Amino acid sequence: MELRPRFSLHASENQKHSAMREFTDREEPTKAFMDAVDEKIQERYKVLTYYGVGGIGKSRLLRELDRKLELRDPFIVKTILDFKEEKHRTPSEAMIWLREELKKQHHIKFTSFDLAYIIYWKKLNPQVSMKAKDEALPFLEEGSFIGEVIHQLENVPVAQWFPKTLKFISGIAKYKEILQWWMGNGKAILEQLQDLLPHEIEERLPAYWAADLRAHLASKQAGAVIFIDTYEALWEKSRQQGSFYDKDAWVQELVLQLPEVLWVICGREKIQWAKTNPAWDDELYLEQHLIGALSPMDSDKFLQSCGIHSEEIRKVIIEASHGLPYYLDLMVDTYNLLEETHEPQLHEFSRTPQKILDRFLVYLELPEKETLKVLSFTRHWTIELFRHLVTEFHTGFPHTAYTELFRFSFITKENEQQWQMHVMMRTSLQEQVHEQDADLCQQVHAVLFAYYDEKLTKTSGHYKQLYFEEAFYHGKLALTTDDFLSWFLAIGKQLKNSGHFQWLSAHYGKLQMALTTDADEKLQGAIHQLFGETYLLQGNYEQGVSQYEAALDKYKKVQANPDNAKSLARCSIDLAEINIQLSQYDAAYSLLNEGQNYAADFHGNKDEAYYTVVMMQSVRLGKLNVRFARYEEAMENYRHAIQASEQAADKLGGVSSIDALTALAYEKLGELTQLFGDSSAVDCYLKAIEYYERALRSEDIQDSIRITANMGLAHKRLAEQYSAVDEPAKKIQSFVRALAIYDAVLEQSPYFVDALEKKGHAAVDYMNLQIELNLYPEAHLSFHIAVEAFEKAIELSPKQGGSRNRLASAYRERGKLYMKQGHVEEAIASLSESLMLSAEVIEKTPDYIYSHNSIGKTHEQLADVYAVSVQVDLAEEHYNKALANYKQMLERAPGLKEAAERTQILEKKLK
User: Fold this and answer.
1) How far apart are CA 834 and CA 853, in angstroms?
2) How big is the CA angle at 562 (ends 560 and 568), to the nearest 5 degrees?
3) Domain boundaries, position 490
4) Buried-most residue among 332, 507, 658, 724 (CB within 10 A)?
5) 267 and 300 inside one domain
6) What share of the chain is helix, strand, coil (3-state, %, to 5)?
């Protein structure tokens, strides 16, 4: 190693040299952009996109296009929105930022948007002053019209803004230029938004923002180009199924609001708007260009601009880079390091990335080199982790000098707290360490696993997922298979119990190899069982069946022992629950009997797991018997579960899992007695709530998210028992409590299908109460809440019959609402929609038990509407259809109370 000082008088020149790297012309992409600018038609949409792999130079291209546009037309309205900044990915934050940029650069007034935004903001933060030091909105300039409005309305409820603003407007002669805007847009905005919820206003913000920009462009007869960079970042944290096309819907809406603007978007993938709107397939509107590697000519021009004058060296670098700008940057860094000590020579460069890496490392100080090696094992790091690794492995690098190490182009800053190393460099460094010291690889991964595992156990909230991902990644590489699976099982149970189902299910594929090795069979069975439980809670029933069957297969290979019998029983019982959800009722009965047999064969100590199995089997068998109107058998099942809970309490004392199942048994017993008008149902529901609360207070609580959701159902059942005439306040309070519980559960676990379905049920029943109390606007709101919950459940679990059936029932109940309001045509339309949705239930889930009962109720209600309208023939037709469906229901469940009662009533009515 040559002796050389740490700093040099020429260092600033080198830094300037690197910073002045020029963009090399991309002829085709540039021509496409200039053609789009020349050919832009004012009223025709035009979106130009450039996509390609990371490191290919898209951002540099975009900024070069921006520069060329500035030289060509300095008066054109333009700006760049970069989704690399996380806060720019939400519509409200993005439009605030665009507003500030365009006002600063082009003096554009966004009065309509400002007014809409302050209404949105105030509704979102009703208790916070808009002029508070920490909360002041960026556009509340003193002396501005909006600033004056806020001054006048600061302590006025939003609902009163409209009359107060009318009064204020009449006395603002100094804002004469604003009066025209007020009469055109301002008054309409207040009228439109004063009754909307914050999320509904946020959806409309693009329209107001676009209206202001459109007005400016028209007044100045100017054109506009808006660049959007790092488009793929919109999906950085939620690329999974369901929400993919929703994430950029607001961008598409903003584009659709502004046909006057040329939009230029850079990202790693093609834009998928045509998936939701086929009109975007037309290249007149959406023109997409793949950005490939830089040509040798462009690469050469770039290297010359960076001060590499040797043609031979440039040729070697270009061949090694394959036109990827990242490699070019890396080689320029290498060249600059060499140049600090001597004139770079041809033999010091190589045609392979690994040799370039070797050459690059030769000219680093030992602490820099060793620190980079250790950092390469992380996928990203914070300053805290950087210091931990430097200390743990004694690399010798100063804790405070991290900016000096992070100066290289292959290290990028992800956000304010995290850095990462380019994957190519990271892989190359790891390969080198593995070749030189394989034990060090194991040690680094072990240290990183311990670091993240400790963080995981001490952290909640946003960072918990990050720590789980990293602990999983490093643990898999650092631990033995059995130790890793044991760790995953323990942490996986915690994550499942707290509702993080998506995190778990996303890791099944990553465990495949570990689950097919010679690992402990019982341990593998427990992992499969954990995934089975997770998929069950997500509504992914096919995957759940696969996992439970795999678990059963593994457990059956283990030598018979008491613990194994309980595991076999629990898997059979849970598998039965999935079959119930899939409307495969015979299979469910068979599996519940198998579970009972496994429990009966148990000869060990009757512990918590034993009583849990016995109670769960009894409750689920009871629920299944209720579906087929086997009421006496169901009653016996529920009482057996309660009896088992009493035995468990005598032997074990208070245990949260037993308390939770006791609560569930009482809730189901109450539901059964409620069918027959038994007043003891109220006592059952109150007992259920008492046991749920006791379970949730317990220090040994398990499955807290599931227990909480079940408690919500007990409150909803209790609401059903109170009289709307004599106890309306109690009835409302119980419904509100149930819905609040579901909202809290879904905030923590948005993919919990059962909670979504329960929320939908509660919203429909609450809607019926609101109809009865003549609370019509509130009833319409409850309808929309129910529909949103059921549609989300169906999206996550398409084969679940319950949510589809209840969605149809929501439309049926809305028919009642319309009839009570005197809107006959709307009532008929809503009931017809209900029948269409019920047809989908039969098509998608033909064996669902209650479908004909639901259809019968809808036909009966439709017949009542026609009877009121004195359309006798149509009324009779639908009464007959209702009767036919009730009879079909009774063929499957002969004793079903509701269907039997409705059949008798209709037969008398038709006679």
Assistant:
1) 13
2) 75
3) 480-574
4) 658
5) no
6) 70, 5, 25
